[in-house]
Amino acid sequence: MAVLRLRFTKTKRDKLAQVLWILNWISVVTGVILFSLGLFLKVEINKRGELMAERDIQYVPNMLIAVGIIACAINFLGGKICYDCVDTTKFLRWKLIMLPYIICTFFFTFCVLVGALMCYSMHGELEESLNLGLAEAIRFYKDTDTPGRCFLKRTVDMLHIEFQCCGNNGYKDWFQIQWISNRYLDMSKKEVADRLRSNVEGKYLIDGVPFSCCNINSPRPCIQQQITNNSAHFNYEHQTEELNLWMKGCRQALLEYYTHIMQSIGLTVLITWLFELSVLTGVRYLQTSLENVLRQGDLDSESDGWLLENSFMETARTNLNIIKSLGKSNQIDTANNGDPNINVPSTSKAHYGPDNVPPNEIPEAS
Amino acid sequence: MVVMKMKFPFQKRVKLAQGLWLLSWCAAISGAITFSLGCILKTELRRRAEVMDNSDIHVVPNTLMIVGLASLGINYFASKICQDALDAGRFPRWKNMLKPYFAVSCFFTVLMLLAVIMSFAMKGSLESSLKVGLRNGIRFYKDTDTPGRCFQKQNIDRLQMDFHCCGNNDFRDWFEVQWISNRYLDFSSKEVKDRIKSNVDGRYLLDGVPFSCCNPSSPRPCIQFQLTNNSAHYNYDYQTEELNIYLRGCREALVHYYMGLMNAIGAGVLSVFLLQASVLVSLRFLQTSMEAVAGNENTEIETEGYLLEKPLKETIMEYIEPVMKFFLLTNQVEEGTPGAPAST
């Protein structure tokens, strides 16, 4: 009882081969697209590498790149095979390779699906990585004289301006760390000395934010210092003021940005997966119908094509038996307790005549 | 006196026609590229239209777009003509069209050259337009509640951050205007009253700049206020401080950007002009050499081709005369008409 049996005339088989040839070439193009999407994601993640803590997020773009390259190779081979299938003599060249090719491609489509699902699963790891990375970056904002951290200030400022965000969760993160370096603080002043003494660690904490947190849509000039002090500024109330600074936290802004990219990529990979699966189905039908034609002998006649020869359960059972017997091919017969030296009489049924026949007399040479 | 006479044997004519067909298609693609370059330039100019006082500079991209479209048409017809040129039966039908076709093509080719020259020469016009536009932008920075000027602050802030510049000529332009609106000034405070009384117009002037002038590459947090007061900030000397705010003026930055763009486009369009001119010259040679063949039984004879039948001045007069006659002399009675109608 074959699975999804279809009848194929000669013209139908030829048309199928030609269509599959074109579809395989389109799949090569989609493979290139997958490769470039993976490359794009890798570049985007590396661009903000300074703001991300060490986490295992490189595996997603790497997987996409690998899948893209393998898709190109497999579909290129598939295109060649389908091109040759129009001519039945050339098909004989590929006859033995086709079944392993189909099995490999089937497992490969699983990899494509896994790649698509990984795009959606990266969310949690990315959030954690950004959280830690941004907290570190904000802490080292003032260290523009420390080698290795000279450009962190510039990076954080450009991040605020580009993504229209402030701080890790919000602008209040800046109140908890010292973001003005001691090099620019006049330690002889009373105000500075008071602030340093007011907390345990001796940090110069203020309720102010860097200039890059300023919102350009605000109708009034930016208020960066004494943000929580309503009386320090005319006609200002910090609880209701929304347009003065960027209200969004940078972690959320970056997460939204990357999630948007990865959702688009994930959708594209899913569509590619469906396309690959349909091409694979077509190739399977082509293979089975051509094999049946060869079995029938007449190359121009109709033949059947199917996905599986027997029902799904039987095929699974047969394959499992094959795999089991592969393991047993080298084992010795264990009938005599495993001792190969005991003579076992032959149980052959061949009869070579009675045992006591005298030999023939040799005629004398004349 | 014929201009540039050349001999054309049959094989040379055939090669000329084939080469010209290819060349005209290349020129058509170049025309499309010219059109798109014009579109790009126009888009870029419109993006910063709020800081430009007039749109005189838009004549450059407009001309490029017109010339690009015209070039597509010219080269399409050029390819059709040279396809028909070698066929003695089909060539005569183009006979009447060729004179106006060459006139129009020469006009548009010269226009292309003019566009290239303009893209280099209009720097002064652009600069004066930006000067006035930026001055107004800075003056109306505080008027975020006035309809029509609500977004001036946003535009100037974005401009300063994108182009890494501050003010019109430099950051000191901000010291001469009141950029903080009266809505946010506490008039009961002594400091505010002093400042307002200190100048004739009663404006609140300070030696500070908006936050968008701040340079993110500075190693220290941005100093925006009391810029000229060294003692107001620790370890600060405004004469030697270079990284704190952007020192370049926005006019200089914008002129530099647009001139770079227009120079690059001008260089590209110049090469398109040379290509177009060579197409027209080759077509003229092909036309004149094929006309000499007309009427002969044997189409494979050697003929002469030339650029102009008469010297350049006479040719120009020949073309302009009918145009002038049409526009200027339609209403005048012709002088010296023999047999005055008065005598009966």
TrEMBL record, chain A:
Pfam families linked to this entry: Tetraspanin
Membrane topology label: Multi-pass membrane protein
Swiss-Prot/TrEMBL GO biological process terms: visual perception
Biased composition regions of type Pro residues, renumbered to the chain: 356-366
Top-level taxonomic group: Eukaryota
UniProt keywords, alphabetically: Membrane, Transmembrane, Transmembrane helix
Region (Disordered): 334-366
Biased composition, class Polar residues, residue ranges: 334-349
Membrane-crossing segments per the record: 20-39, 59-78, 99-123
Listed CDD domains: peripherin_like_LEL (cd03162)
Cellular component annotations (GO), alphabetically ordered: plasma membrane
InterPro entries named in the record: Peripherin/rom-1 (IPR000830), Peripherin_LEL (IPR042026), Tetraspanin/Peripherin (IPR018499), Tetraspanin_EC2_sf (IPR008952)
Compartment(s) where it occurs, according to its Swiss-Prot or TrEMBL record: Membrane
Main location, first listed in the record: membrane
Family per record: Belongs to the PRPH2/ROM1 family.
Protein name, UniProt field: Peripherin 2-like a
Organism: Sander lucioperca
Automatic annotation (TrEMBL), chain B:
TM region positions: 60-79, 100-122, 257-281
One family name in Pfam for this protein: Tetraspanin
Membrane topology: Multi-pass membrane protein
Cellular component GO terms, alphabetical: plasma membrane
Keyword Transmembrane: yes
Localization (cell): Membrane
Keywords: Membrane, Transmembrane, Transmembrane helix
Swiss-Prot/TrEMBL GO biological process terms: visual perception
InterPro entries: Peripherin/rom-1, Peripherin/rom-1_CS, Peripherin_LEL, Tetraspanin/Peripherin, Tetraspanin_EC2_sf
PANTHER family per record: PERIPHERIN-2 (PTHR19282:SF440), TETRASPANIN (PTHR19282)
UniProt similarity note: Belongs to the PRPH2/ROM1 family.
Record protein name field: Retinal outer segment membrane protein 1a
Organism: Sander lucioperca
